């Protein structure tokens, strides 16, 4: 799979400095929900994650191996690689590593750490040093809805000397701005008429663990051996901590055992609804699978990806509820670098799931007020190298058939081609008269389709979350993703008990086994606009193949293996 149109460098007229991440979609300062605030203190310490250039022939070899170990029909399915084997494939020259490292140290960095794969460099430096080394200006940016949340970003493009820039893919996250949970997706009331299985009036009509167990056919328990070798994690950023007391309250009321087994990055006990939603429901689905919370105060998916790829024994399933529109990324090179990191993870048997977004086909940047502008696909949800999870609602007020949530992200990438694993499914969707596709000018007919699967996440059936001592209704694909991640964590446990390797990158398995999901055949993800993608029989760009059927998936997952584990 290739990514066309990458422009890595733009040399200034002086030919001394090179602007990084220049692209056909250049960063233009449009931060949507973020407002530039004060300058940081020059002595303030910050961490930079520097992605070193990987030669194209080496990346192609990495991708080749990635598809082989990820495809259940390939003889090498599940034959994952070690960190050292991936490092050998990447073959980043030591001169490249040392030259970039020396540049930042000579600029005044306090320390530098080279990742095990030799393709990432973590630089600890003062703001003054970072500004000088990158020829840019840094500012705090605050969120216009959540003014207490702020991030440190460059206020314009950053530059590197030409002889250093040729060795650097990008420095993250200087130009990217995260999407935070919308206020309208919190403090919701439920419309469900099912019995409340939690001992809290605040859960009436809301989705609870019992609702998920019934709808997705989750068994109450599994054999201990089916959980010992399975692990999972959620990623949290920007003050999204959790209160152990909230987890205890949820556990007691909803008859669960919600605990966090490990925290990377620390926890300052305070109620972060995003974190508590993730934790309470991934553990409700997979109660016996050990959970790690990976926390970073500064939003950086690049740092997060570097973290998991640098671990000697990383969690096997990761759920991430953060993302943005493709058009809001600073460059295609930025996305290309992430895709390389995702492939590295898959080569080690790691499964990565991302929420597909909560603003329909128009994304965070919108489709315009008076004329219907082009759709805005999400990233990383539209990456071909991760599993994207969309959102649904119940079609009625009881536990039963589901319908596409109107605000669920879905569509077709503007940057990545249709991967082979979904070519047949996407073609069938486009050929169906039931799809009633939106006007072609609004979306890319040759792009990767997403989401791949879905789970409850809409405003009609919000989740009952214990947060800050109270129970509250919370919606969004941020709920859908940890639920599906929990399902696959349990499947990994079943495979481990059968002496088989973890599932790794999930999409080839998903597209080869659509019978493992409950098809969603109604609804449209237009987000209230005229156009969107309809849910129809089979795969669609609103709900993927539908929502999990654990009974079916458990049989398919254990049977799906061409390797013999001795």
Structural account:
Helix 1 packs across helix 11 (332-347), helix 9 (273-285) runs parallel beside helix 13 (477-497) and helix 10 packs parallel to helix 11. It is built from 15 helices and 26 strands. The chain starts with 8 loop residues before the first strand and ends in a 7-residue tail after the last helix. The protein has two domains: 21-172, no CATH class; 202-559, Rossmann fold (3-Layer(aba) Sandwich). The strands form eight sheets. Strands 11, 12, 13, 14, 16, 18, 19 and 22 form an eight-stranded mixed sheet that branches. The chain is an alpha/beta fold and 566 residues long.
Q: Which value, in Å, is the CA radius of gyration?
A: 22 Å
Low-confidence segments, given as residue ranges, are: 1-15, 23-31
The CATH architecture of the largest domain can be named as 3-Layer(aba) Sandwich
Would you tell me which CATH topology of the largest domain applies? Rossmann fold
* CATH homologous superfamily label of the largest domain: Peptidase S8/S53 domain
Structural class: alpha/beta
The CATH top-level class label of the largest domain? Alpha Beta
- Structure summary, number of beta strands: 26
């Amino acid at each position: 799979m290739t990514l066309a149109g990458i422009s890595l460098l733009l040399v200034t007229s002086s030919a001394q400095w090179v602007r990084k991440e220049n692209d056909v979609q250049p960063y233009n300062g449009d931060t949507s929900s973020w407002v530039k605030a004060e300058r940081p203190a020059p002595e303030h310490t910050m961490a930079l994650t520097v992605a070193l250039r990987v030669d194209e022939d080496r990346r192609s070899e990495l991708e080749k191996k990635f598809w082989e170990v990820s495809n259940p029909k390939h003889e090498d399915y599940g034959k994952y690689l070690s960190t050292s084997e991936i490092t050998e494939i990447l073959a980043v020259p030591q001169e490249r590593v040392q030259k970039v490292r020396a540049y930042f140290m000579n600029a005044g960095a306090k320390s530098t750490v080279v990742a095990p794969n030799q393709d990432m460099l973590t630089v600890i430096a003062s703001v003054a040093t970072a500004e000088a080394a990158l020829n840019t200006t840094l500012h705090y940016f605050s969120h216009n809805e959540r003014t207490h949340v702020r991030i440190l970003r460059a206020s314009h493009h950053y530059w590197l000397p030409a002889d250093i820039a040729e060795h650097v893919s990008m420095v993250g996250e200087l130009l990217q701005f995260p999407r935070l949970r919308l206020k309208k997706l919190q403090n919701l009331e439920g419309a469900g008429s099912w019995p409340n299985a939690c001992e809290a009036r605040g859960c009436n009509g809301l989705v609870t663990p019992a609702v998920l167990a019934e709808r997705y056919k989750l068994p109450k328990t599994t054999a201990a051996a089916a959980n010992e070798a399975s692990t999972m994690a959620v990623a949290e950023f920007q003050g999204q901590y959790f209160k152990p007391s909230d987890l205890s309250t949820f556990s007691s009321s909803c008859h669960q055992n919600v605990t966090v087994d490990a925290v990377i990055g620390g926890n300052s006990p305070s109620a972060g609804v995003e974190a508590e939603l993730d934790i309470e429901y991934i553990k409700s689905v997979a109660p016996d699978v050990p959970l790690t919370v990976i926390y970073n105060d500064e939003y950086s998916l690049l740092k997060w990806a570097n973290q998991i790829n640098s671990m000697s024994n990383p969690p096997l399933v990761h759920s991430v509820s953060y993302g943005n529109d493709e058009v809001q990324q600073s460059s295609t090179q930025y996305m290309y670098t992430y895709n390389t990191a995702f492939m590295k993870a898959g080569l080690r048997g790691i499964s990565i799931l991302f929420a597909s977004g909560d603003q329909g086909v128009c994304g965070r940047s919108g489709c315009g007020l008076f004329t219907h502008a082009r759709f805005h696909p999400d990233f990383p949800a539209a990456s071909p190298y991760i599993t994207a999870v969309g959102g649904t609602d119940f079609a009625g007020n009881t536990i039963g058939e589901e319908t596409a949530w109107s605000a669920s992200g879905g569509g077709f990438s503007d940057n990545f081609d249709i991967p082979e694993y979904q070519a047949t499914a996407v073609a069938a969707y486009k050929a169906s008269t039931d799809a009633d596709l939106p006007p072609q000018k609004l979306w890319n007919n040759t792009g990767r389709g997403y989401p791949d699967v879905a789970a409850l996440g809409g405003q009609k059936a919000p989740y009952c979350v214990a947060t800050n001592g109270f129970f509250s209704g919370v919606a969004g694909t941020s709920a859908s993703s940890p639920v599906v991640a929990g399902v696959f964590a349990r499947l990994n446990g079943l495979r481990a008990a059968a002496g088989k390797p973890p599932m790794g990158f999930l999409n080839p398995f998903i597209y080869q086994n659509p019978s493992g999901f409950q098809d969603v055949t109604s609804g449209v993800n237009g987000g209230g606009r005229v156009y969107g993608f309809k849910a129809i029989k089979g795969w669609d760009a609103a709900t993927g193949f539908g929502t999990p059927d654990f009974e079916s998936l458990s049989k398919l997952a254990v049977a799906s293996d061409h390797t013999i584990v001795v």
